[in-house]
Each structure stands twice: as structure tokens, then as C-alpha cells.
Write a structure and sequence with these properties.
The chain is α+β, with helices and mostly antiparallel strands and 711 residues long. 29% of the residues lie in helices and 23% in strands. The chain has seven domains: 84 residues, Phosphorylase Kinase, domain 1; 221 residues, Transferase(Phosphotransferase) domain 1 (Transferase(Phosphotransferase), domain 1, Orthogonal Bundle), CATH 1.10.510; 47 residues, no CATH class; 63 residues, Trypsin Inhibitor V, Chain A; 64 residues, Trypsin Inhibitor V, Chain A; 66 residues, Trypsin Inhibitor V, Chain A (2-Layer Sandwich), CATH 3.30.10; 59 residues, Trypsin Inhibitor V, Chain A (2-Layer Sandwich), CATH 3.30.10.20.
Length: 711
């Protein structure tokens, strides 16, 4: 497997607050990272939009509106949006981090499930949708990949990134959604509302019960058209033994006409729990996985307990339309379906499928408990026989309930005084409760107070200001911060200027200073290795200079500034000095210099003088001076050796007595002995005979001059 390339964002801090720890998933719209909120010291999921979307102003404005809407929704079964930001480098969403797995993982490993297991999973999903619908939000992308199950078993709906406010009248030209779960009205371009989420949840219920999606095709558009044309088959056709109520529930949730579905999540939740209450244990445990892991061909034994659902798969899974490598076996991917612009509108509530408790009580009071309002019961038979519709039957049930509730006899005599005393006592108690509540909310611990601004103050000063506002609890928490000095207050949670109840308390966020990184030891490393060590340690390469160095080979680091072992902020520059190797030294000419002068000259340029053991005679170089050197020229490095040969001076030669000889013979003999000859003529030198010589018959230095006087 090819290793994933290094992501440069890992290890950096986004917006001076979110330290990126690891990449979780990447898709067509964004990349999701596991990050830490250094201000609140908690893990979060950081969704960073790709660059081409982060520069789209229209998309950013839409995302901001949706983030505001989704962040207003706080529910235990909905993934919370903590923050949203748009900067020069990134546009991002900060989401609650769920440590667990997705509903897709459960379907892949355990489906088909029993009705008990399926309803256990569907109930919190629908409850979360009900809260969203009540807040005016539509999810528009309900599917198993967007349902997260934490390690502790909490079920949460995530990724409201494609939601729209129900009251918003704007629309877009295209619709993103997974075609395996898309509602018919969205395919037709008629716009969607809360009932579109109900349809997607119905497809998901079918997949939980059968282990597969109802519609499949070679291309996404073929699957989308099946949602428009074909009815969703009954789950019992794929898994025999399922109770008919489950078939009816799937059919009711996946009606082609939105008016025939539950009006919203709250309406569906009521029907869902009613069915759960009416099914027997044998019916709740019917179906499920057989021995081979496929659909069971028989009902599950009523005495056999339902197997628990798997837990413990760590990680955070982004919307698979954006995430990498997490697709189910029947996942048909995401398609872009053209749609005209239609504003979202609120439609009248659809007819409910199931009788509620009040209707059931009315029917029982009228002696008609089993009269056809149950799914698949008498109403369906009456409709087939031309009888009253469900709506008419419900109206009759309500009238009967009112009649049954109207008293027809007096059960006892009244006691006006006792009743008056009871009412007085009730009024007094209510007054005390109201007064206590008024004091608690107006002046007591429940009163609103404004959190003071305490940035850059000491902890003691901040606690004093916070307690002065009436907050009794002022806990502290340390966070990294680049701009605030260590020990001073960075911010509070909630932030200054926010109003909240006094009993809730305030957390003071105290600066630990910036995140510091140690400077690595770089001496002896190559320049490339030194740069890699700095960037890998969250530091930067500063000025790089070269210098001759006699001990380290060329291209290696010989010094750094700042030195290793010290800690600095991220991206601090470290200057490097790189060796150019030993410095080249030209060999100086030393011939004719005295031995002492030659040694000093070599030492001055960094070379070493060595004297040859034997001296030589030289007619031209005086004794004690350098007569030759090795090498005579060229280049050496520091510490190189130059060998010096010292002169003994000229050699002494016996001067012969040449008086009486002819001048030419005398001259030749003297030159052969190495002397210079000077001839002086007396009386014109007519005879050419040497009459006088100087010196004569003594030793003289080789090369010295002998004077001949000739007559």
C-alpha cells in the first residue's frame, strides 16, 4: 500500500486555537481532522473546506447561515456545531468529536437486524430529527453514514451541512444527496421539507431490517428514478417472519406523496413508540441474521435474547459523500441532480397512521377496542369494503371519548368549606413557589449576570471581578496561547460580555504561554538533513552561511544559532554555518631568507616548517639562509609542511700560483676552479704574461674574484 503523503496542516494551529492532530477523512468538499481546542483543552472534529470552496463567497455565506442555524440546535442525539470561521487561509467548521463508529458499520457487520434492534437504533435518530424539525431545520441527507454511535452507546445525527432552514425562501440550482436514500420530491425538483427526512429514514429502516437497500442500479440516476416510480417493497418479502406492523411502518414512511407520510419527526416518533409498545416479544425478536449472516428464514425463538449491537470501533467518520474509503456494499454514491428553484414551504401535517392512546381509550369505552384503527386491521378492511376512512374513524373515536368522559351520576355530596380550604392552601403554596422562583431568578443564584472582561489580568484579579458579579464558582483551566503572557488570563468560558445564571459558574482560561519546540542538535549533519530536522520540529531555516573549517568536511553544519537544547515558538528561524572544508593556502617563496624568517613566514599563513638534516654549499646564498624549499610553490591546506634546505655558504678553494703564466691559461684555470677572473694590463700588456696575482697561494671562497696583472 502506498503511504499517504504528509499533510502540512498536521501540527499547525488554526486560528490560534485548534491544534491539528491527525487527518480522519477527505472528500470532495472538505477534509476532516482530529484536532484539539487548546483554549478549552478538548478534542474536536475540524472540517476544513477545500480551497476552491473557501474562495467561493456565495458558498461561504450560505455555509455561514447554515452553521448559525445548526448551532442553535442542542440535542443529545444531534452532533453539536461548536464554531465556524473564515480566514485568509481556511474556512472551517468545528464539530463535536464522536469517538465510535457509524450506523453503516453496524449494517455491514450485523444486518439484517430484528425489529427490536432496528427500533432501538431508529428511535434516537427520529428523536434527533424531531428536535431539528421543531427548530426549523431539515437535514436533507439522512443515511447510515451520517448516524454516529459513540463508544458509550449514544446515537447522534451528524453533518447538517446540506440542511436548509424551513422558513428560508432561498434555493439552489442543484441538490446534493446520496441517491440510495433520496426522497422522490427531491428527484423531481419540487423542493424538500421535514417529510423528505422521514422518507430517507424509512429507506434506512428497510436496510436495517433486510441488510440491503430497496433500490439498486448500475448508475445513480437509475436508482433515483426507482424512488420516483417504484414502491418500496415490504421488508418481510426479503426476511420472512417479520411482523406486518414493520411492513406497514416502512410503507407509511416511504409513501411517494409527502402528504401521506408523517408530518415531521415528532409525529413519526409518536407512531414509532406506539408500534414498539404493541408488538409482542416474539414479534420484536423476529427476523434478524441467520447462521450464515444473511436474512433469517424463520422467526427468532421468543426465549432467545436479542444480541447486543457492536461497539468500540474508534474514529470519526465524515459524510461519505466527502470521506475516503467508507462505502457500503450497496452504496450508490452521490449524484448531482438538476433542480429548479423552489422555496421551501411548510405543508399541513399529514394524516397519522396509528391510533393514539386517547383514541384507543375512547374505543375501549365504547366497547369497540379492536375496531379497525390498527395497521392492517378493520379500517383497511372497511376501506376496501367502501367503509369510513381512517380520518373519519378517528373523528368518531374522539366523539366517543368525549361522551365517555362526561359524568352521568353524582358520586357523593360536596363539601364547599373543605374545598375552599384546599383551594386557599393551594393558592398559598403556589404563591410561595412563585415568590421563591422570583427571588431565585431575580436576585438569587438563578439571576442573570454579565461575565466581566478579564483578558490579560492575573488569576486573582479575574476571580475577584467574577465573584463581584455574583458568580460563586470561578474554576481555572490552563491553555496554550501565543499572545498572552504566561500566568495571565486569556479568556473566560463563557466569554466576557455574555449573560448567564450565577449558579452556572465561569471557567477562567489561564495562559501557559505559546507552544514551545526544542531546537535540535544539528552539528555534523548535512545541510539537507539539518533543514529536514528543523521543519520536522516545527521550526524554520534561517540564514545559511559558509565558512572554511579545517576539521569538518564540506557541506556539513559546523555551528547554529540558537543553540540546541533551547525551546522556541513554532517557525522560529535557526541560522546555520556550513563548512566549505579546509582553507587553501598558497606556498610562499622562501629562498634567500634566513632560517628564522622562513619559519615565521610559514607559521603566519598556517603552514609548518621542516629543515632538511643536511646543509649545502652555495656560491650565491649566504650561510644560514634558505637555499631551496619543497614544495617550491602550489597550494597547501592549514598544517601543511614545507621542507627548507639551509646554505653553508660558498666552498673554499686553493688559489693556485699563476705568476709567469700566459694570461689566457691562467684565466682558464681559475674559472675551472670556480673563481671569477679580473685582468689588469700593465704597460699595455704587450707580452701577455702574468706578473702579479691577488690572492695567490691561499684558499678563497668559490666564486670569489682573483685579480691578474699582465705585462
Amino acid at each position: 500500500m502506498q503511504a499517504e503523503p504528509f499533510d502540512p496542516l498536521i501540527g499547525t494551529t488554526v486560528d490560534d486555537r485548534y491544534l491539528v492532530l491527525a487527518k480522519v477523512a477527505r472528500g470532495g468538499m472538505s477534509t476532516v481532522y482530529l484536532a484539539k481546542d487548546v483554549r478549552l483543552n478538548r478534542n474536536i472534529a475540524l472540517k476544513i473546506l477545500h480551497a476552491h470552496l473557501a474562495t467561493d463567497n456565495a458558498f461561504i455565506e450560505r455555509l455561514q447561515r447554515e452553521a448559525w442555524s445548526a448551532a442553535s440546535l442542542s440535542h443529545p442525539h444531534v452532533v453539536q456545531i461548536h464554531d465556524h470561521g473564515v480566514g485568509a487561509e481556511h474556512a472551517y467548521l468545528v464539530l463535536e468529536y464522536i469517538d465510535g463508529h457509524t450506523l453503516r458499520d453496524i449494517i455491514n457487520s450485523r444486518a439484517p437486524l430484528t425489529p427490536r434492534q432496528a427500533l432501538d437504533l431508529l428511535d434516537p435518530i427520529v428523536e434527533g430529527l424531531a428536535a431539528a424539525h421543531a427548530a426549523g431545520l431539515v437535514h436533507r441527507d439522512v443515511k447510515p453514514e451520517n448516524v454516529l454511535v459513540s463508544r458509550s452507546g449514544w446515537v447522534k445525527i451528524g453533518d447538517f451541512g446540506l440542511s436548509r432552514a424551513v422558513t428560508t425562501t432561498t434555493s439552489t440550482g442543484t441538490l446534493l444527496g446520496t441517491v440510495g436514500y433520496i426522497a422522490p420530491e427531491l428527484v423531481n425538483g419540487d423542493g424538500g421539507d421535514a417529510r423528505s427526512d422521514i422518507y430517507s429514514a424509512g429507506i434506512m429502516l428497510y436496510e436495517l431490517l433486510t441488510g440491503e437497500q430497496p433500490f439498486r442500479g448500475q448508475v445513480p440516476i437509475a436508482v433515483a428514478m426507482q424512488h420516483v416510480r417504484d414502491d418500496v417493497p415490504a421488508p418481510s418479502a426479503a426476511v420472512p417472519g417479520l411482523p406486518p406492523e414493520m411492513d406497514e411502518l416502512v410503507r407509511y414512511m416511504t409513501e411517494k406523496d409527502p402528504d401521506n407520510r408523517p408530518a415531521n419527526g415528532a409525529s413519526l416518533l409518536e407512531d414509532l413508540r406506539h408500534i414498539r409498545h404493541t408488538l409482542t416479544p416474539e414479534e420484536l425478536d423476529a427476523g434478524g441474521s441467520g447462521p450464515g449472516g444473511g436474512p433469517a428464514t424463520r422467526a427468532v425463538d421468543a426465549a432467545a435474547p436479542t444480541a447486543p449491537l457492536p461497539r468500540g470501533m474508534a474514529g470519526y467518520q465524515e459524510n461519505p459523500t466527502e470521506a475516503l474509503g467508507h462505502r457500503g456494499p450497496q452504496d450508490n454514491g452521490t449524484a448531482v441532480i438538476g433542480a429548479p428553484s423552489y422555496p421551501t414551504s411548510v405543508l399541513p401535517p399529514a394524516h397519522r397512521l396509528y391510533v393514539d392512546d386517547a383514541d384507543r381509550a375512547a374505543l375501549h369505552a365504547a366497547g369497540n377496542e379492536t375496531a379497525g384503527l390498527e395497521p392492517g386491521g378493520g379500517v383497511e378492511r372497511e376501506r376496501a369494503a367502501g367503509g369510513p376512512s381512517k380520518r373519519e374513524a378517528r373523528a368518531v373515536a374522539r366523539q366517543r371519548a368525549k361522551a365517555a368522559a362526561r359524568p352521568v351520576a353524582t358520586l357523593g355530596t360536596a363539601h364547599p368549606r373543605r374545598r375552599a380550604a384546599i383551594w386557599i392552601l393551594i393558592v398559598v403554596l403556589l404563591g410561595l413557589i412563585v415568590a421563591a422562583a422570583g427571588w431565585f431568578l431575580g436576585m438569587g443564584p438563578g439571576a442573570l449576570a454579565t461575565v466581566p472582561e478579564v483578558h490579560n489580568k492575573t488569576v486573582a484579579q479575574a476571580q475577584s471581578l467574577i465573584q463581584a458579579q455574583g458568580f460563586q464558582r470561578a474554576a481555572t483551566s490552563e491553555v496554550f496561547n501565543e499572545k498572552t503572557a504566561t500566568g495571565l488570563v486569556v479568556d473566560t468560558d463563557p466569554t466576557g460580555g455574555t449573560e448567564q445564571r450565577k449558579f452556572q459558574g465561569v471557567t477562567i482560561l489561564v495562559s501557559k504561554g505559546p507552544i514551545l519546540y526544542p531546537v535540535p542538535a544539528l552539528f555534523g549533519k548535512s545541510l539537507a538533513d539539518a533543514k529536514a530536522a528543523l521543519t520536522g520540529g516545527h521550526l524554520a531555516v534561517g540564514a545559511v552561511t559558509e565558512a572554511y573549517d579545517e576539521k569538518n568536511k564540506a557541506g556539513t553544519v559546523v555551528s547554529q544559532n540558537p543553540a540546541s537544547g533551547t525551546d522556541f515558538r513554532g517557525n522560529t528561524k535557526v541560522d546555520l554555518v556550513v563548512s566549505k572544508g579546509p582553507k587553501p593556502i598558497p606556498v610562499p617563496s622562501l629562498v634567500g631568507k634566513t632560517s628564522a624568517d622562513a619559519r615565521a613566514a610559514l607559521q603566519g599563513v598556517g603552514l609548518v616548517a621542516a629543515v632538511a638534516p643536511e646543509q649545502v654549499n652555495s656560491a650565491t646564498v649566504p650561510a644560514g639562509a634558505v637555499v631551496s624549499q619543497s614544495p617550491a610553490d602550489g597550494i597547501l591546506t592549514a598544517g601543511g609542511t614545507v621542507t627548507l634546505t639551509i646554505s653553508k655558504g660558498p666552498k673554499l678553494v686553493m688559489v693556485p700560483d699563476l705568476v709567469g703564466r700566459q694570461v689566457d691559461d691562467a684565466r682558464a684555470q681559475l674559472k675551472a676552479l670556480g673563481f671569477k677572473v679580473k685582468v689588469e694590463e700593465l704597460l699595455g700588456g704587450f707580452f701577455g704574461t702574468v706578473r702579479f696575482q691577488d690572492p695567490q697561494g691561499v684558499e678563497a671562497p668559490e666564486g670569489s674574484t682573483v685579480t691578474l696583472r699582465v705585462i
